[in-house]
Write a structure and sequence with these properties.
This protein has 2 domains: about 140 residues, Rossmann fold; about 100 residues, HAD superfamily/HAD-like (Rossmann fold, 3-Layer(aba) Sandwich). It is about 35% helix and about 15% strand. It contains 10 helices and 13 strands. A hairpin with a 6-residue loop joins strand 9 and strand 10. Helix 1 runs parallel beside helix 10. It binds magnesium ion (MG). The site of magnesium ion (MG) has 8 residues, from loops.
Length: about 260
Amino acid sequence: MAAEVAMPDTVTLLLLDMDGTVYVGGVVIDGVPEALKRWTSAGRKVVFITNNTSRTIEQHALKLQGMGLPATPNNIVSPVEPTSRFLRDRGVTDVFLVATNAVTEEFASHGIAFRGEPQAVVITYDIELTYAKLAEASKLINKGLPYYATHIDFFCPTEDGPVPDIGSFIAMLENVTGVAPTSVFGKPSDSLVELIRDRYSLNSLVVGDRLHTDIATGINAQVPTCLVLTGETSKMMADASPYQPTIISPSLPVLIDDLLAR
Ligand SMILES: [Mg+2]
């Protein structure tokens, strides 16, 4: 799958992946806060895109601010909002949610809550997962309720190796019910980029370290992409991949200085 979109002359909006692009294992990558300061001081914009639905947008903002990054709840997107919009567009507002308490409240702020007669099951990267939630989700899926997931990542990287993300919960529920979620909203789906397009009409560049999520998202949304080599992908892996980025840069600070010098 080749990138079909050319780089614009001037990039004005960076759509940034987080883990492996701005930080690794909770530690900010050298030079990233200063580079983003140069970027925003030049009047250009940044939006952070995350698949991680174990935290609310507010919680993501606090984490990024703690690393000295220019993040507010207004320039971070997660799959919670496009998932909510998809449900509301279909008249679905009563949902059995597998989510943390904080993320459950965030869904409620978008009009999606459990009201006693669920029309669908939605699962997230619930780090407060319990057996009771899994059993209830299974029973509702067995009954034939529509079933959706915010994203599909199998694991979350940590300093001590991978730990289960939502994809592992999806596999468990599929082993039990024989059913997989019918729609997902995180990367590599284009729904997060669509959401951003509704708010900004700027020349965007998707930047990330994962080919099958970040780079695939840009390809799906027809936005140019930059692979950075600070995360899980090497130049050799990129060369062999069906997901070809528009450009490759050693790191986000190098990319930003190149873009500002154009
Ligand atoms: Mg990443």
